[in-house]
Design a protein that fits this description.
This protein is mainly α. The chain has one domain. It has 13 helices and no strands. Helix 1 packs parallel to helix 12, helix 2 runs antiparallel to helix 9 and helix 2 packs across helix 10. The longest helix is centred in the C-terminal third of the chain and has 28 residues. The two termini are 26 Å apart. 46% of the residues are buried.
Length: 301
């Protein structure tokens, strides 16, 4: 393994682990704010910071002429749906369970890419998807009985991320990495601020907007900063080692989530749920391995 590959793997692993730290901070805010308000605040901060940085580094051109605006709006919708769903899920169910279910995203992405982008849906992908969803059912078995359909929130999060990933493929070549991050943050903020306002007027007590204590806002700001830093580290890892090389590092996020949930929230690992998580992770690694094999066997041009 080359030095650049090792550095890339470490950057990516640090980024994925930092995402789990942010997830744990989100869980610590349960009952102190609402998921809709937190999601709107997180992406409003991100939109302001990333847009400002984009103008400073690249001028006003990327802001005045946004490439593929409908695709950028779809990216914002996907990440907005994923964020508010995930925030709600970690407040209602064990952190590790919620994180594990979100790892169905690659399988859902493959299905969406086949439907909307015309990409080939292989039999192996269908089998991996079925195995992954058996894992989801195993994890959901106690949560569904306790909290009902709210237990499906992490699956909705995975769908949102799959929409984002599919739209990312459609938007390839539409600007710099910084511009792409700024566009998705602005799109998410434009969606989530009205959602938070509608939630406030809904009359449902658990999602009515209110200004929390300063320490809750500070933690929300940390979540925004840590997420942006994590995505930057993952981007650095990708540039040094390649997206395919760092892909398995994403599952380090689940290990950190298990450790943090156990240490800070007393959520000891459920062995049956871990079996479900293993099926999901195994399916994802299987798809990754098969994709690597296909690249190796492709004939030279």
């Amino acid at each position: 393994m080359q030095q650049s590959d090792r550095a890339g793997l470490l950057f990516a692993l640090a980024g994925f682990c930092l995402l789990s730290v942010g997830d744990a901070v989100v869980k610590s805010m349960a009952d102190e704010w609402t998921p809709t308000a937190l999601a709107a605040f997180r992406y409003s901060l991100g939109a302001i910071a990333l847009s400002t940085l984009l103008v400073v580094k690249e001028g006003t051109q990327p802001v005045r002429r946004i490439p593929l605006p409908l695709i950028q709006a779809l990216r914002g919708f996907g990440v907005g749906l994923a964020t508010v769903s995930f925030f709600g899920s970690v407040w209602l169910m064990p952190l590790a369970d919620a994180v594990a279910i979100t790892f169905t995203q690659p399988m859902i992405t493959a299905i969406l890419a086949a439907i909307f982008l015309g990409e080939r849906l292989r039999l192996t992908t269908i089998l991996a998807t079925l195995v992954a969803f058996i894992g989801v059912l195993i994890i959901l078995r106690p949560n569904f009985a306790e909290i009902g359909f709210a237990a499906l929130l992490p699956l909705l999060c995975a769908l949102g991320m799959a929409i984002l990933m599919t739209a990312n493929r459609a938007a390839r070549g539409g600007g710099s990495a910084l511009a792409a991050q700024a566009y998705v943050a602005v799109g998410a903020a434009v969606l989530l601020v009205p959602v938070a306002a509608l939630a406030h007027t809904s009359g449902i007590e658990g999602i009515r907007f209110f200004w929390p204590e300063w320490h809750v806002l500070a933690r929300a700001a940390f979540v925004a900063l840590s997420a942006s830093t994590a995505h930057w580290l993952i981007y650095l890892g990708t540039t040094r080692a390649g997206a395919a090389t760092i892909a398995p590092m994403t599952y380090g996020q689940l290990l950190i989530a298990v450790a943090l949930a156990w240490f800070f929230f007393g959520e000891a690992p459920d062995l049956v749920a871990m079996l479900g998580a293993a099926l999901i992770v195994g399916s994802g690694l299987w798809l990754w391995h098969l994709s690597q094999q296909r690249k190796v066997t492709l004939p030279a041009a």
